[in-house]
Amino acid sequence: MKKLQGDIKKHLDAFRKRMEANYNSERAIQEKRYLKSPFKFFGTSLPFADKLAKEFRRTNKDAGRELVFELAERLWSSEYHDEKRLGLRILQFHPEYLDFSVMPLLEEMLMQSTGWDFVDDISIHLVGTVLEKNKKVYVYLKRWSASDNFWMRRASMISQVLLFRQNRGDKKLFFGFAEKMLHEKEFFIRKAIGWCVREISKASPDDAFDFLMKIKDRASGLTLREGAKRLPLQLREMILNK
Questions:
Q1: What is the pLDDT confidence band of residue 63, given thresholds at 50, 70 and 90?
Q2: Cα–Cα distances in angstroms (integers) from residue 171 to residues 77, 165, 168, 187, 204, in the given order
Q3: What does CATH list as the number for 1-97?
Q4: What dotted CATH number matches 132-242?
Q5: What is the CA radius of gyration of the chain?
Q6: pLDDT tens per residue across span 203-235
Q7: What are the structural domain ranges in the chain?
Q8: What's the CA gap between 208 and 202, in Å, rounded?
Q9: pTM, rounded to two decimals
Q10: Does the N terminus or the C terminus of the chain have fewer Cβ atoms within 10 A?
Q11: What are the percentages of helix, strand and coil residues in the chain, rounded to 5?
Q12: At CA 47, angle to CA 137 and CA 223, rounded to 5?
């Protein structure tokens, strides 16, 4: 345990030095404003976080599950947005450790998220990876779809994005979630419904078209426009011409 804590401190210190060395005050201000985040910023980019996460994976090939998760959780607890993001990317680049047992942690992270960037990252890349391995994750999605927290409701839908791109996933379940949320005014819910339908349309255009026709008189213009984006022009016009 003592060695583990020492290793974690070593990595955290190294990450912090890299963040400080790449501090960008202008970008920090812009990102904080754009993401409406309550956290501090170093002003580093997502590609920079990916670079650090990949370097960690490459130079620590023997990093065990305990080290990876402890490091990710410590980064997630940081007061800096950039370090939180890095914690998520480290988990993403260790997919072999993402199984059903991590769902309570991912659910907690989602509930602690304050903006779309963390919610989307956790839902698509972490929950989505677990879902590809274990359908029991749908139990979580069903619960999230009825949450009072609209970020959790968004997560219940977009966690299947990777599966939809592969013509997999439970489309019927998603359509059920989406119909119950059509009345919502929240931008991120309306956008999420359309986004998921758009992903479905890439492999199953008929399913996407049928659903959009079914909801066209109840759905927002944003949802319909997003959902119909990848459909052939003739079908798209049928959806958008109410």
A1: confident
A2: 35, 11, 8, 22, 10
A3: 1.25.10.90
A4: 1.25.40.290
A5: 20
A6: 999 999 999 999 999 999 999 999 999 999 999
A7: 1-97, 132-242
A8: 9
A9: 0.94
A10: N
A11: 75, 0, 25
A12: 50
